[in-house]
């Protein structure tokens, strides 16, 4: 059965210009998906995980220590990978699990010239109960389908991608994430690229889907901000500052995403152009860029992570947990973001254990609003969240030559700490929850 169309979440108020741009984008995506599932390609083979073949490596490699230099360099992957080829004439070929290694594409491949590439990032966790788990993997797979549609890559059933990811985790998890490393994780990167060798600007007629698993440092392990890899890709040994991320607001002439664009999609074109600003931020002693939008300086994301603030409302005096809305399609619909919102609505809308209740709000807000709240003592805390940094407290925001010292309760804000603990318990099996998907590992 062909997968049904995905309806994106929405909240807040949409401007007319945004609505128009989004409707045009959606119309193009629906037209492409219709052609992928009916009409001209109705007889093409769908992505089918049950047809996967397996070739095991004859050269297994040693597993590095969790926080070793090799792991921090983020270059080491597990023994195997999964690939699946698609062509416009035949559809999806049988997926292959095979030894990890390079593959070849033509110099004229679409991905190299037109950025026809999308990816996902999620983690495989070794629970304290000894079991392997994935966290809300269905959301990652559904989002990747939406990203692929945005850049004219082929459609697929997200459930089949989920099966491929689970199969790779089951194969390599036991060795690369052994039971004695409870509380550790590996990083999973499903990717799709356009491999069509025609140079014309057109929808790719060939594509490659692949899944790899990498050794990745725990960026939330240290109370101080962890060092990113050095510019040469090697581990960065520079001394780190006190707990909490330090953000510098983006300049007026730099925009990460815009209404009607592709900020909501996890595509490579969202990330490459941001690296200059990120490099400048680190050269100035900051960890990430706080991305602003428009003359009003609307707050959107922090680096490649979603951004939250806790403010006390001026009139009512009530606390609000606030993050930017999705309907303008300029921020990523983060899996961690969605989980934070759902947990907060479930557990933080009433006071308990000495924690004041918060109202959970998705809306536009500006730097001017944050500055005013800070001056009036209503800025309670801020944090970023995403797969890589997990839930990371914010200690400072630099905006137009001035610093906003964000309140901290030791090494974190109160709300960031409790939300992080809740998520950690689900991811590592301390709490039984439907979001934690158990992987039955293969040990032979």
Task: Please describe what this structure looks like.
The N terminus is likely disordered. The chain has 444 residues and is of the alpha+beta class. The strands form two sheets. Strands 1, 2, 3, 4, 5, 6, 7, 8, 9 and 19 form a ten-stranded mixed β-sheet that branches. Strands 10-11-12-13-16-17 form a six-stranded mixed beta barrel, surrounded by four helices. A hairpin with a 5-residue loop joins strand 6 and strand 7. The protein folds into two domains: 199 residues, D-amino Acid Aminotransferase, Chain A, domain 1, CATH 3.30.470; 183 residues, D-amino Acid Aminotransferase, subunit A, domain 2 (D-amino Acid Aminotransferase, Chain A, domain 2).
Helix/strand layout:
Layout: H1 16-37, E1 53-54, H2 69-72, E2 80-87, E3 91-92, E4 96-99, H3 110-114, E5 117-119, E6 122-126, E7 132-135, H4 137-150, H5 158-176, E8 185-194, E9 206-214, E10 245-249, H6 275-283, E11 288-293, E12 298-302, E13 305-312, E14 319-323, H7 335-347, E15 358-362, H8 367-375, E16 379-386, E17 390-399, E18 402-405, H9 414-427, E19 436-439
Parallel strand pairs: 1-4, 10-11, 10-17, 14-15
Antiparallel strand pairs: 2-3, 2-4, 2-9, 5-8, 6-7, 6-8, 7-19, 8-9, 11-12, 12-13, 13-14, 13-16, 16-17, 17-18
Helix pairs in contact: 4-5
